[in-house]
Write a structure and sequence with these properties.
The complex is a heterotrimer of chains A (366), B (234) and C (308). Chain A is mainly α. Chain A is 74% helix and 0% strand. Chain C has one domain: ABC transporter involved in vitamin B12 uptake, BtuC (Orthogonal Bundle), CATH 1.10.3470. Classes of the chains: A mainly alpha (366), B alpha/beta (234), C mainly alpha (308). The interface between B and C is medium-sized, with 23 and 18 residues.
Chain lengths: 366, 234, 308
């Protein structure tokens, strides 16, 4: 019986070649688009707009990753910026002190894909992992408890991180001193409340959008997987999900750790961006709230909805700079109105192509 | 005294009551029997205002009360002792009784009724300072009924008072239902224990999937083949 | 010894303010089961309204030339104002969501919070400049115990906080309204069946909680006269610590909120005095995480199973 079932399912499966194409095509498309943005579109639109596009990309990484927690599992984290901070500082120390320790100076080595960039990519991953570890430590105790405790713990964790960062020492900039210092000294010399200054500007449109593409693909695939459906079932009814044999705590913690990982990467991207300084004030709970608003407006559970909302909420304030007094008020009112009138967010669980009107359009186009 | 006319209730897409017709006269004990999910509790909830009927009327002493808020209905003289008893476990026995008298402000009358309830349920008086959560199931049922009486209702709605209680206690509870009625309170009793319910009631209704299928004197119902087969275990 | 007593007094003063704010969080949580994020803003507005009321009455300046009853007038005025505000917030933003998932209410609460902070900062309202609270209470040292000079303002902060807590205790355990609140917090549906006008009771809960937060705002501004701009993160942080107090004491439990508030105040100030003054917030949130790990129901709370 079993063997015949396997035979049949093997017959239904696409051939190896096709499977490889369908697995590799999306990442290839992401890398291609990111390269297009970096080499063609970026230079064409000029510095200011390229910076806006970079900010959009980082916001997308933040919002889509938070959507894994707040959207998929229905938990409520409002300390996402804390993981960004952890990742940013981890990545920043690797890049900054790594340059000194390996090459003796901050001088950038090589160009696009050169040694400096390599170190930077490693640093981004280190930042992601550090944030993921922090996510595990924070998530495990609070996700066992009633849902809204997570909110308060994440917020509290964010504050602890912020305060601890402000207590760090000044950044070192003497190569000999750095070479002689212990790792602990280096990790605690990240600038305090003034911020981690002097980080090389290695972030560009390419890496930002590779990261954004990665989190979008990851989220979308997760949503369509068994585990994704399990996560959504936790959101709909945790007790029923538990009764169906879903290890709810484990899955919630996993989703939380994934989200923290990507937030950590976003932190690394942010740390090395031109025109930003990694400092504790920048990444307080205001930042976390902004990300929450993106997820809520976009539709809790919708990857494309979150992406669109993140982009809109970065671009609109730039466009409406002269109304900045009213910007946060408008955010707040929008949030309240959406909850009153459209509690599932603008797009709910749906993706763009699942909206009836868009569907019709797609069909008629064929 | 109470008249339900063509009463319909929907829970979302579920059509729980499909035109219930029912009448309770002054001084009676009327019972509504039926199986699980037939609409017994729903009927009581519609009367006490917890559910808004989608169609039909509920008249109490000649006044339409369908759709009124629960606290308004209580003020009019209908008290509802809900299924599962619903005592406030975080309050003492005495405080539970005070909550029952929430709509009243005649202190002397409340004290008098409190005494009456303690007379009916001496066990409650012994435990008046205890938290209700520490009472046994039977005592909680007594408390729920006593609490409803403190609203000084002219009509008392009792939902499954015997649910989950030992046979000894069930006997006591039904005796008290008789006593309450003898003191002048009209009672609409919902029960799964059809046997006991038909014993104390004057008249009975049988409800099946949201419709009244039989209505008669309690004795006639208890003797009827249909009821015996379906609800009295042969 | 002097340092210890001084810290004890400051910790008690700050702690009693946390307790006042924590009561509002815990009462709302007890009935509606959500964290009212806007509560810290009501507290903030309590402080700001105190300043504005004093200004309107012409009591500016730090020379203590104001009538003795000025404090009493201001505190009553801001309690009424914030009580009304609490009523409006509940009516406008939370009541329409009575049957919505809790997460929606939580998000709405954040929306209300952001709205209050940022509209408060509009130039024609409170503005973005910090202000200095005029001195309405006598600040001089009354007497000294073991080298600690006891200031009148500290005694008043502690005294008024405890008086208000006693008042609340009486409302909850000694009045019909309190009985109704306790019944509603246990079971809203049955409470309605008993004739309790549930919506009105919930409104009153917000009014009472907001009035207490307003009083805390006034006392805070009196003790620490530099009033930060409305959207300054310190306000949210103070509110957050008060919420931590409620959780530490056992959320939904009034006496727990009072005990938790005092505890948080003492932990914070003793940590600041004896460990490092810069890590005050870290002590508080570490305490929170420890309590959640080892006694999630809080110090005075009962273990509850989430209702199915």
């Amino acid at each position: 019986m079993e063997a015949s079932f396997q035979d049949r399912s093997a017959a239904l499966r696409p051939s190896m070649g096709k499977a490889a194409v369908s697995a590799l095509l999306p990442p290839a498309v992401v890398i291609g688009l990111a390269a297009l943005l970096h080499f063609v579109i970026g230079p064409a639109i000029g510095y200011f707009y390229a910076k806006v596009l970079t900010d959009v990309g980082i916001a997308v990484v933040m919002a889509v990753s938070l959507n894994l927690v707040n959207g998929y599992t229905g938990q409520f984290s409002i300390g996402h910026a804390a993981f960004m901070t952890v990742g940013g500082y981890a990545a920043g120390s690797v890049v900054y002190y790594g340059h000194y320790l390996i090459w003796g100076s901050l001088q950038q080595q090589g160009g696009f894909l050169g040694p400096s960039t390599l170190l930077y990519v490693v640093a981004l991953l280190v930042g992601g992992l550090a944030a993921a570890l922090a996510g595990f430590v924070v998530g495990l105790p609070s996700l066992r408890l009633r849902g809204d405790y997570l909110a308060i713990v994440t917020l509290g964790f964010g504050e602890i991180v912020r305060v601890l960062v402000t207590r760090t020492n000044d950044v070192l900039f003497d190569a000999d001193e750095i070479a002689a210092a212990s790792p602990v000294t280096l990790l605690t010399s990240v600038g305090g409340s003034l911020g981690f200054t002097g980080l090389p500007f290695l972030t560009n449109l390419f890496w930002v959008w590779v990261a954004a593409g990665a989190v979008i693909l990851f989220s979308y695939r997760l949503k369509r997987s068994d585990q994704g459906r399990a996560l959504l079932s936790i959101r709909e009814d945790e007790i029923a999900a538990e009764a169906m044999g879903i290890p709810t705590t484990r899955f919630k913690v996993q989703a939380f750790v994934y989200a923290a990982f990507f937030a950590g990467i976003a932190g690394g991207l942010f740390a090395h961006e031109v025109g930003t300084t990694l400092n504790p004030q920048e990444l307080g709970f205001q930042k976390s709230f902004e990300v929450v608003i993106m997820v809520v407006l976009g539709g809790m559970g919708s990857v494309t909805g979150t992406t669109i909302a993140a982009a809109a909420l970065v671009i609109l304030p730039e466009a409406l700079r002269s109304f900045s007094d009213y910007r946060m008020i408008a955010y707040a009112l929008t949030l309240i109105l959406v909850m009153l009138l459209r509690p599932q967010g603008l797009m709910g669980l749906r993706e763009v192509w699942e909206i009836p009107a868009v569907r019709k359009l797609l069909r008629s186009g064929r | 005294m109470l008249r339900l006319n063509d009463l319909h209730v929907h829970y979302g897409a579920v059509h729980a009551l499909q035109g219930v017709e029912l009448e309770v006269n002054q001084g009676e004990i009327v019972t509504l029997i039926g199986s699980n999910g037939a609409g017994k509790s729903t009927t009581l909830r519609a009367i006490s205002g917890m559910l808004r009927p989608s169609r039909g009327t509920i008249d109490f002493e000649g006044k339409p009360i369908a759709g009124l808020a629960p606290h308004v209905v209580v003020g009019l003289g209908i008290a509802h002792s809900p299924e599962g008893r619903g005592v406030f476990a975080n309050l003492t026995v005495e405080e539970n009784l005070q909550v029952g008298a929430y709509t009243r402000s005649d202190k002397a009358g409340i004290a008098e009724d409190m005494k009456k309830v303690y007379g009916l349920f001496p066990r409650l008086e012994e435990r008046r300072r205890q938290l209700a959560g520490t009472l046994s199931g039977g005592e909680q049922q007594m408390l729920a009924m006593g609490r409803a009486l403190l609203a000084r209702p002219r009509l008392l709605l009792l939902d499954e008072p015997s649910l989950g209680l030992a046979p000894q206690i069930v006997k006591v509870i039904f005796q008290i239902i008789r006593d309450i009625n003898a003191l002048g309170t009209t009672i609409l009793l919902v029960e799964q224990n059809a046997h006991k319910a038909l014993e104390v009631a004057n008249r009975g209704y049988v409800i099946e999937v949201g419709k009244i299928v039989l209505a008669d004197d309690a004795k006639v119902l208890a003797a009827s083949d249909e009821v015996r087969k379906a609800y009295l275990g042969g | 010894m002097t340092k210890f007593l001084q810290t004890l007094m400051d910790g008690t003063a700050v702690g009693s303010l946390y307790a006042l704010i924590a009561l509002g969080y815990t009462m709302v949580y007890g009935i509606l089961r959500f964290i009212n994020f806007a509560h810290s803003d009501v507290f903030m507005l309590g402080a700001w309204f105190s300043y504005e009321v004093a200004k309107i009455m012409g009591w500016t300046g730090q020379d203590q030339s104001h009538p003795v009853w000025a404090s009493a007038f201001v505190i009553v005025a801001v309690m009424v104002a914030c009580g009304t505000l609490g009523f409006v917030i509940e009516r406008g933003a939370y009541r329409p969501l009575r049957s919505a998932p809790r997460i929606n209410v939580l998000i709405t609460a954040i929306g209300v919070s952001l709205f209050l902070e940022n509209s408060g900062q509009l130039p024609f309202l409170l503005g973005t400049q910090p202000q200095r609270m005029p001195t309405l209470m006598p600040e001089h040292a009354l007497f000294a115990v073991a080298g600690v000079s006891v200031r009148a303002v500290d005694l008043l902060v502690i005294g008024i906080s405890f008086a208000l807590m006693a008042l609340l205790e009486w409302i909850i355990y000694g009045t019909k309204l309190g009985l109704a609140m306790r019944a509603v917090s246990y079971d809203t549906k049955v409470a309605a069946l008993m004739g309790i006008p549930v919506d009105r009771v919930i409104s009153m809960t917000f009014v009472v909680g907001s009035a207490l937060a307003a009083a805390a705002g006034f006392l805070y501004a009196t003790k620490y006269p530099g009033i930060n701009q409305p959207a300054h993160p310190t306000w949210v942080l103070l509110g957050l610590k008060a919420f931590v107090a409620a959780v530490v004491g056992g959320i939904g439990n009034l006496r727990g909120a009072m005990a938790g508030g005092l505890m948080i105040g003492l932990v914070e100030l003793f940590g600041a005095a004896y460990l490092s003054p810069h890590l005050r917030d870290v002590y508080v949130f570490t305490l929170l995480i420890l309590v959640l790990l080892f006694r999630p129901e809080g110090l005075l709370g009962k273990a509850t199973i989430e209702k199915v």
